[in-house]
Design a protein that fits this description.
The chain folds into two domains: 169 residues, Dipeptide-binding Protein, Domain 1 (Dipeptide-binding Protein, domain 1, Alpha-Beta Complex), CATH 3.90.76.10; 221 residues, Dipeptide-binding Protein, Domain 3 (Dipeptide-binding Protein, domain 3), CATH 3.10.105.10. Helices cover 31% and strands 22% of the residues. The protein contains 19 helices and 19 strands. The radius of gyration is 23 Å and the shape is globular.
Length: 529
């Protein structure tokens, strides 16, 4: 461990920023964070489905609709200055803000909005389901997203969704507006610029992508012409530091301004530090255990029920997760409208053994996949230990996000400890992922749907999910989501365990960092020193 930490410190201390300044003692106009960024696979908004990349996209691109750092719970216009919902409830006309420009200097036009939305559907990458639920597909999207005139874009939703849900969905990362002219200049073999945009940017946000070097760093440069004014930091630098202990040392030495992945024990040890402050942000991220029901053993509902009773939820939350994760056992986060907060499960080894005995499956072996980054190894190890008491021999395989997520999306796992956050602020976002699987065939490749990834489908649950989505009466809709969450606690392939509260440690002179409820509602533009 000492050798690993020392190597990271030497690398970080030796790293020179583009202006020649060393990483140690960052300049007043450069914001440096130590963070595990090993989950970044791509930075194309049409493809991004990971936590760190989503955060980067949120700072590089403005979306059609947005949650701004000044009021992170209020949905407002981003690229859209205003909108008008037509009487049919299916059509929304957006007015595009005057005077917006991309980082290239090109004006932001209705053509760019049209191209950005259509591109997501045509590429059909993992997050495309956010738009295809509107009734859009590659064959019809050009008819359903249309330019009205030089200032307006009209969209038509054919799936009977409420306008409120649609507007929330248009605040997701896939609604980032990209520079059509710049992206198509880098198109190769009809890929709509995807190959280039994976490691470049073409947005109008507060920052532009200077450089991303996988598993090393991400550098963002300030957009001096941003619509809210130039950010105080001319550069934001995310250094890949996967070890929390190395992050702590860098922070205490003054080599970084903020550490993003310190453990609760490390944060407690820093209490009272004269130069450091701890900030906590309630998040909507959910940590869960999922079972691939195509597995010959895990396909038995009694086995999944046994797993739920063989987890020490409270023990983990009160020890190595204290302050950062609380027990939560439903798919929609606590603190949001329509959240279900009952926690019916606790560690009960005898109950787990009884369920497994009735299924004639004691003992059995299983593989648990999870991330290398804290606290996922510790969670997996706790589960491994209590599973052993119940007669389950679990083998843990830890991987970085670039390896784990493609494996999970291809249904190659057995059990997985993973994290999920809503794509937009409506309960259908998580219901659509956890509960709704309209096509369970392997070739359907519904990789953005957790139910599909785990080969689980219920026709009745599918119907109830769509009914809840389309119900206009708010009280009735809330009751439906509460029912769905309660049913998934016993019927789904999951043991939902925790909800996150993000803790960051910063140097006291750093102010203005904001992390909202959703995974990508993280903002750098108001940071000052």
């Amino acid at each position: 461990m000492r050798r690993i930490v020392r190597t990271v410190l030497l690398l970080c201390g030796a790293l020179a920023l583009d202006d020649g300044s060393a990483l140690a003692d960052p300049p007043d106009n450069i914001f440096v964070m130590a963070k595990d960024i090993g989950d970044v696979i791509t930075l194309d908004p049409a493809e991004v489905f990971e936590f760190t990349a989503g955060e980067i996209v949120a700072n590089v691109y403005d979306r059609l609709m947005m949650f701004e750092p000044e009021d992170p719970r209020e949905l407002t216009g981003g690229v859209a200055e205003s909108y008008a919902i037509q009487d049919d409830g299916e059509t929304i006309v957006f007015r595009i803000r005057d005077g917006l420009r991309f980082h290239s200097g090109n004006p932001v036009r209705p053509e760019d909005v049209e191209f950005s939305l259509e591109r997501v559907v045509k590429l059909n990458k993992t997050p495309a389901f956010i738009f295809t639920q509107f009734g859009w597909n590659a064959a019809n999207v050009e008819d359903l997203v249309e330019i009205v005139d030089g200032s307006h874009v009209r969209i038509t939703v054919t799936a009977g969704l409420s306008p409120g849900l649609v507007l929330n969905a248009l605040s997701a990362g896939v609604a980032s507006v990209i520079d059509k002219e710049r992206v198509l200049a880098h198109e190769t073999d009809g890929d709509l610029g995807q190959g280039w945009l994976r490691s470049h940017s073409a947005g109008s946000g507060a920052f532009w992508l200077g450089r991303w070097k996988a598993n090393e760093f991400i550098a963002l440069e300030a957009n001096a012409e941003y619509r809210h004014g130039a950010p105080a930091m001319r550069r934001v630098f995310l250094r890949h530091v996967p070890e929390p202990s190395a992050q702590r040392l860098l922070l205490e030495r003054g080599d970084v301004d903020m550490a993003r992945n310190l453990t609760p024990d490390q944060i407690r040890a820093l209490a009272g530090h004269a130069d450091l402050a701890v900030d906590s942000y309630p998040k909507g991220a959910i940590v869960y255990l999922a079972a691939n029901t195509s597995h010959p053993v895990l396909g038995n509902p009694a086995v999944v029920q046994a797993l739920r009773h063989a987890i020490d939820y409270r023990g983990m939350a009160d020890s190595f997760l204290a302050g950062q994760f609380s027990v939560h056992q439903a798919f929609w986060p606590a603190g949001l409208w329509a959240s279900y907060t009952a926690t019916p499960y606790e560690l009960d080894i005898e109950k787990a053994r009884s369920l497994l005995g009735r299924a004639e499956l004691v003992p059995f072996e299983v593989r648990i996949d999870t991330l290398t980054s804290s606290p996922f190894p510790q969670i997996a190890q706790s589960i491994q230990a209590t599973f052993a008491e119940a007669g389950i021999d679990a083998r843990i395989v830890m991987q970085d996000g670039k390896t784990l997520w493609p494996r999970y999306r291809a249904r190659k796992h057995e059990l997985i400890v993973a994290r999920w956050s809503p794509d937009y602020m409506d309960p259908h976002s998580n219901a659509d992922a956890f509960a709704h699987n309209p096509d369970n065939r392997p070739e359907a490749m519904l990789a953005g749907v957790l139910a599909w990834r785990n080969a689980w489908a219920s026709e009745e649950i599918n119907e109830r999910t769509i009914e809840a989505r389309d119900t206009q009466d708010l009280a009735a809709r809330e009751a439906m989501y509460l029912e769905l969450q309660k049913r998934l606690q016993t019927e789904g392939p999951y043991a939902i365990m925790f909800q996150q509260s993000e803790q960051v440690v910063r140097r006291r002179r750093v102010e203005g960092f904001m992390s909202g409820v959703n995974f990508d509602h993280v903002y750098y533009r108001n940071v000052t020193k």
